[in-house]
Amino acid sequence: MESWTIPINRSDVLRYVGWFHDTLPPKMDKLVDRCIAETAALCVPRWRFTRVSVQKTPEGMLLGNELLLTGNDARQLLDGCESAYLLGATIGVRVESVIRQKMLTAPDEGVLFDAAASSAVEAVADRAEAAIREQEPQPLTVRFSPGYGDLPITVQPTLLKLLDAPRKLGLSLTDSLLLTPTKSITAILGVGAAVHTMHTGCSICRLRESCSLRASGRSCGNPKTTEF
Question: In the chain, at which end, N or C, are there fewer CB atoms within 10 A of the end residue's CB?
Answer without folding.
Answer: C
